[in-house]
Amino acid sequence: MLRSAIYRARQVRDLVQRDGVSRTIGMIVQRVRFGPGQWRRTEVLAHYDFVLNKSEIATSGMAAPNSLLWIIPDFNIGSGGHTTIFRIIHHLESKGYTSTILIVGQGVHLSAESARRDIVEHFFPLRAEVLLEGDAVPATEFVIATSWHTAYYARRVSSAARKLYFVQDFEPLFYSMGSEYVFAENTYHFGFFGITAGGWLAQRLASEYGMQTLPISFGVEHERYHAIARREPERRRVFFYARPPTARRAFELGLMVLNLVHKALPSTEFILAGWDTSSYDIPFPHLGAGTVAVDELPDVYAQCDVALVLSLTNLSLMPLEIMACRCAVVSNRGANVEWLLNEEVAMLCDQTPEALAMAVCDALVNDAKRLEFIDRAERFARMHHWEAAAAEFEKGLIVARESLAGAA
Predict the structure, then answer these.
(1) pLDDT at residue 232, rounded to an integer
(2) Dmax (CA) of the chain
(3) What is the pLDDT of residues 102-153, one digit of tens each?
(4) In 10 A of CB 204, how many CB atoms?
(5) DSSP bridge partners of 101
(6) 61, 289, 308, 353: least surrounded by Cβ within 10 Å?
(7) CB 60 within 8 Å of CB 67
């Protein structure tokens, strides 16, 4: 029975990754109503129809200088990748740039008005016009793809706009080797100028795919993420970013690490946040915090001594934010991490349960060593500002304007 439940959970997870939350819910409702055998048939050709380089997306009007068309997938409130996109748009608006946001593909918003309302209320007070796929699209100086799906739409925009690709991760690795890996990888051959989140992506896309790239760094919202007075300092707590649906965050590896820590130091308390893990058999005592509101995260981080944050593709924003809250970070080694982190500010280990568990235990029992890391890491985090990252993005626009004009 347990094996069947695990299989069904994985089946639902795979459906969510493939078809999105809303469509998966519809399929589950259909199965409940009509019984086994009534799952909706997979419409392969229709689902991937956007991959074909078919009809152009027409634009109208004259492209004004410093105008941008951002093509994005639909979003949920709290999406980290969208937060970065909207943050950069907000910065560029303050510099006189004009943006239009085009949402493509299946999603959660039924109207452009509701999408814009969510952006303004839950992200940033943007002035940008928001459009849905099929709406009339204005001509702009730049067209910016923001994910592999949207790169196919950017390729079809008919205007002579300069086309850029804001790459926040190496998205082929989101999938096993198969069609979607290939579809994602193919977008790096579209000839777009790449602005990347960090140097690892810039180097990889340039060396393996011949893309022109310019990296930008990460920032920290210092008004939100900062030191907070620690309650119950005599307790030892470990935070783990536990997100089972996101394979690149290594949920299974992380659980093995925490279990080894528990066996070595049974009094250690554990906080798991990022997803509802209540359906998983986790043998050690822990607090399953689920999805934590952004405004509550600093307090969670500050109440912990060590944070285990694993990144198997590009580094996440979380380590810098945790460091700003004076919590020691343990992470895995790799060029995808070490383009930003180093052994002076984070405890970097081989990607084995034993090595990572040893580092967590060392940090927990060696107060002087942990505090030295925390002090260095906090100073390091203070050096990173989103204003600087957005300014680097603006520099990317200038470089792309010159580069693509020369190639024309």
Answers:
(1) 76
(2) 67
(3) 999 978 899 999 999 999 999 999 999 999 999 999 999 999 999 999 999 9
(4) 19
(5) 70, 130
(6) 61
(7) no
Instruction: Please state the length of the chain.
Output: 408
Instruction: List, for residues 177-212, the tens digit of each pLDDT value.
Output: 999 999 999 999 999 999 999 999 999 999 999 999
DSSP conformational letter for 42: P
Residue indicated by tokens 């008005």:
113
**Whole-number average pLDDT of the chain:** 90
**How high is the pLDDT of residue 385?**
96
pLDDT means over runs of 10, the chain (408 residues):
54 61 61 51 85 89 94 91 95 96 90 95 96 94 97 91 95 96 98 97 98 96 90 87 94 98 97 94 94 93 96 96 97 98 97 98 96 97 96 95 68
**Nearest to residue 340, comparing CAs of 401, 292, 384?**
384
Q: Are 302 and 279 in contact (CB under 8 A)?
A: no
Distance between CA atoms of residues 85 and 150, nearest Å:
13
Structure tokens at 71: 């093509």
Q: How far apart are the C-alpha atoms of 374 and 379, rounded to whole Å?
A: 9
237-382 matches 59-219+387-407 in CATH topology:
yes
For residues 246 and 249, what is the distance between their CA atoms, to the nearest angstrom?
A: 6
Q: Rounded to whole angstroms, what are the CA distances from 200 to 89, 180, 205, 206, 318?
A: 23, 22, 9, 10, 17
Question: 35: left (phi > 0), else alpha (psi -120 to 50), else beta?
Answer: left
CATH 1.10.1740.110 corresponds to the domain 237-382 = no
Got the DSSP string for 224-242?
Answer: TS---PPSSTTS-EEEEE-
The model's pTM:
0.87
CATH number of 59-219+387-407: 3.40.50.11090
User: In the chain, where are the structural domains located?
Assistant: 59-219+387-407, 237-382
Q: Which two tokens stand for residue 321?
A: 């934010």
pLDDT at 14: 58
Among 151, 68, 59, smallest CA distance to 104 is for: 151
Query: Using an 8 Å Cβ cutoff, are 328 and 363 in contact?
Result: yes
- What's residue 29's pLDDT? 57
CA distances from 37 to 30, 40, 163 (A): 10, 9, 45
